[in-house]
Amino acid sequence: MPIINRIADYAEDMKTWRRHLHAHPELQFDCHETAAFVVARLREFGVTDIHEGIATSGVVAIIEGNAPGPTIGLRADMDALPMDELTGLEHASTVPGKMHACGHDGHTTMLLGAAKYLAETRNFAGRVALIFQPAEEAGGGGDVMVREGMLERFDIAQVYALHNTPGLAVGAFSATPGPVLAAVDEFRVVITGTGGHAATPHETNDPLVAAVAIYGAVQTIVSRNHFTQDDLVVSVTQLHSGSANNIIPETAEISGTVRTFNRDVQALVMKRLDEIVAGQAAAFGVQADLTYEVGYPATINDPERTAFAAEVAREVSAEVDDNGGREMAAEDFAYLLEKRPGAYLFIGNGDTAGLHHPEFDFDDDAAPAGASYFARLIERALPLEDS
Questions:
Q1: Are 135 and 79 spatial neighbours (Cβ–Cβ below 8 Å)?
Q2: Of 274, 294, 314, which marks where a domain is finished?
Q3: pLDDT of 208-256, one tens digit each?
Q4: What are the distances in angstroms from CA 57 to CA 96, 303, 314, 318?
Q5: What is the DSSP letter of 24?
Q6: What is the Cα–Cα distance from 317 to 138, expressed in whole angstroms?
Q7: What are phi and psi of 159, to 5 degrees?
Q8: Considering the domain boundaries, does residue 20 fall inside one?
Q9: What share of the chain is helix, strand, coil (3-state, %, to 5)?
Q10: pTM, full prediction
């Protein structure tokens, strides 16, 4: 079964919705206009059980099927990125410094397309909870919605989401059982020494020397401290210090990111960072203060639900990879998957600029396939007895 005919019928409507959203991006929890647009469309579709203001601007809408049954959650993220768009398209961002460079406008559109179809047909036994989430890029909107009790409030038993991916054929799908996206943490080290004139370094305790030593030692965590078959990334991405060529500065700062799948590996990194920072500070006679911030957890798909989701995807597309592999990027849908079984799949966006690139744009031809996947997933997971 390819793209659902009824969804194909309003592909142009979906394109219009998506391009409107693309032109009007919003950041983090401030997705009020986007949420209002979503709610207006849902009401046009005949959806009346709509709950607004979850996690500030999130929306959950319930569609009842034609018989009783459990509730399945379908999630789309709504927020954009704080960057200028360079596509030059007619529907490019109208807001300086804000851009849908990750395709969340497309994700929202795919879920709206599925909502329109499911509200028309209601060919399922149970309920679908349409989750329109703010603040995926920063702020952990998924975590906030979970902590506000969304899953319990709407009795959601399973959760599913889609994310577009450049480089995969338009409308193709990729599924990975188990860990699919990494946990992401951040660290920051502030080094305080004694500054002075660059001509008399012996009268100073140079924080830059300690910063460089810490930077080099941090690289050994991956190369010497962890088991090579456990995925791990530790990247120092910033080093800031100094103001002039003839001044040894008083302070230096380094910071970076840690990506893991395994909590034991995460704990190892935290331990080694503590030891390295303390050791190098003592060696160079400076003070060094480490701040480690635990961020989004790893996104871990339920294997059984992922296999089922891949079967559904095959009903929509001839191109489905059911073991697409894990990536070191992160995603706050992880918070929902920590509480409920489900699956996070990728849908192809074709040969486009990469995610978070100023020339990225979601391919509108992918939207009917994504909407059909969501709709068929509900019909397959919650079948009517006479279907």
A1: yes
A2: 294
A3: 999 999 999 999 999 999 988 889 999 999 999 999 999 999 999 999 9
A4: 21, 32, 34, 37
A5: S
A6: 32
A7: -140, 145
A8: yes
A9: 35, 30, 35
A10: 0.94
- The enclosing H or E element of 218 equals helix 207-220
Question: Alpha-carbon distance 67 to 69, whole Å?
Answer: 7
Distances (CA, A) of 288 to 114, 223, 284: 53, 23, 10
- Give, in order, the Cα–Cα distances in Å from 285 to each of 139, 243, 252, 279: 37, 22, 14, 10
Token output for 286: 């400076």
**Which pLDDT band, with edges at 50, 70 and 90, does 2 fall under?**
confident
Kind of pairing, strands 67-77 and 342-348? unpaired
List of E strands, the chain: 49-54, 58-64, 67-77, 125-133, 156-165, 173-174, 178-181, 183-192, 196-197, 232-241, 247-248, 251-260, 287-294, 299-301, 320-321, 342-348
Q: Quick check: is 225 in a domain?
A: yes
Q: Name 192's bridge partners.
A: 251, 287
Distance of CA 194 to the CA centre of its chain: 42
> How far does CA 166 lie from the centroid of its chain?
15
Distance (Å, rounded) from C-alpha 14 to C-alpha 213?
Answer: 54
Domain total in the chain: 2
Per the domain annotation, does 386 fall within a domain?
no
- CA distances 174 to 71, 163, 167, 329, 382, Å, are 25, 10, 12, 15, 23
Q: Which of 245, 270, 294 is the last residue of a domain?
A: 294
Instruction: Judge if 212 and 356 occupy the same domain.
Output: no
Summarize pLDDT for 154-194 with one digit per residue, the tens: 999 999 999 999 999 999 999 999 999 999 999 999 999 99
101 with 242, same domain: the answer is no
* Span 317-334, pLDDT tens digits: 999 999 999 999 999 999
Residue 310's domain comprises 5-179+299-381
